[in-house]
Amino acid sequence: MNRFDYIRPASAAEAAAAAAQPGSAFLAGGTNLLDLMKAGAARPQRLVDITRLPGLDRIEVLADGSVRIGALVRNADLAHDARIQRDFPAVAEALLSGASPQLRNAATVGGNLLQRTRCAYFYDPASACNRREAGAGCDARGGENRLHAVLGWSDSCIATHASDFCVPLVALGAVVEVEGPDGAREIAVEDLHRLPGATPQRETELKPGELITAVRLQAEAAAVAGNARYLKVRERTSYAFGVVSAAVGLELEGGVIRKARIALGGVAAKPWRAATAEAALEGASADTEAFARAADLALADARPSGENAFKIELARRTLVRALRLALAGTPPVMPALPGSAFAPTLGANHAV
User: What is the pLDDT of residues 220-243, one digit of tens each?
Assistant: First the structure.
């Protein structure tokens, strides 16, 4: 690990000013950043500790009914919040599908949003990685790549975004509140992360020094709470990134879909909003045939980036299954992934 300066600002404005200097990184829970620093994959010259900033550790209901989640709220606290479980159950299920209980107790909402899009080659300083060093090349293109991207990838990078939390946020149209040297602004979570193109080292739309202060879930997103699920397929049942995942929500009226919300995870360098699939479902009968057509549309532009053609069919099937589970209704006691708030007993499990 390299030597670095340590700064603890007293306000978000001070934090933004400090982090605007080249070589800076924000420190919150540190569950991703410290791993990368210890491996030599990240070498910041300055850590800006935001853990003591006031007002960023709250979950608030605003006057318009939307829910504002401070960037320093812990993943575990958010997942077990009664309002989140009731109004945005896919968010709770996604959070509890990620990492381990110990990491969820430490990790923060803002840090989860900004965890690095990465693969094994990013972690290995001896490997060529354009995300770690612009212009270095991408060893994943000719290496072990069966779990890499099938949508939105480029020859410069085929890594996938690892967050579970971000997938339902994109499906539900959440926005992030940002403060930086030029003031405050908002960014849709769907637009926060960038596809690699020719500049994979630019991972988000944040400007230097900008700090995520909160995530906001709009009140209208709760309309799908009764028919919402997050489904994650992974190679082991605990502490593993998703091979693919799907967050879905349906607003139903008499067996007809009034509105659909769909996002995929594990398929691209960002959570993937399936807008064409959503549009195809709206006004359609809620049945398996419609779900299959929507899944075909969601993966219409998918192509392998290596030995991962299986992920395309897996993503289709995962999306169809997630839609069928959502159609059945969000159960009061869910046969969920390990640690779910909906599990009937501690450690309850199910096979995907």
Answer: 999 999 999 999 999 987 778 999
Helix (H) or strand (E) holding 169: helix 166-171
User: What is the C-alpha separation between 162 and 245, in angstroms, rounded?
Assistant: 10
Residue 286 has pLDDT above 70, yes or no: yes
pLDDT of residue 58 exceeding 80, the answer is yes
Q: What is the pLDDT at residue 101?
A: 84
Angle at 212 between CA 58 and CA 179, to 5 degrees: 105
Per-residue pLDDT tens digits for 179-190: 999 999 999 999
Phi-psi group of 173: left, alpha or beta (phi > 0 → left; psi -120 to 50 → alpha; rest → beta): left
Q: Give me the mean pLDDT over the 271-282 stretch.
A: 98
- Domain coordinates in residue numbering, the chain: 224-327
Question: Which residues, including other chains, have CB under 8 Å from residue 16's CB and lie 6 or more apart?
Answer: 179, 180, 181, 209, 210, 211
Four-residue CA torsion sign, 325, 304, 159, 176 = negative
Beta strands in 149-191 (DSSP E): 175-180, 183-188
Which of these, 230, 190, 221, 223, lies nearest to 319 by C-alpha position? 230
Helix (H) or strand (E) run with residue 47 in it: strand 46-49
Q: Quick one: which of 318, 272, 273, 264 has its CA closest to 292?
A: 318
Query: Token pair for residue 153?
Result: 């990838």
Tokens at 347, concatenated? 């450690």
Q: Are residues 219 and 190 in contact, defined by beta-carbon separation less than 8 angstroms?
A: no
d(CA 152, CA 299) in angstroms, rounded, equals 11
SS (H, E, C) 278-293: HHHHCCCECCHHHHHH
**Nearest-10 crossing angle of helices 310-327, 288-298:** 140
Q: Is the pLDDT of residue 37 over 60?
A: yes
Q: What is the predicted pLDDT for the residue at 237?
A: 75
Local structure of residue 263 (DSSP, 8 states): E
CATH of domain 224-327: 3.30.390.50
The torsion angle over the Cα atoms of residues 337, 341, 346 and 351, rounded to 10 degrees, is -10
Instruction: Check if the beta carbon of residue 278 is closer than 8 Å to that of residue 295.
Output: no
Angstrom distance (rounded) from CA 65 to CA 217: 9
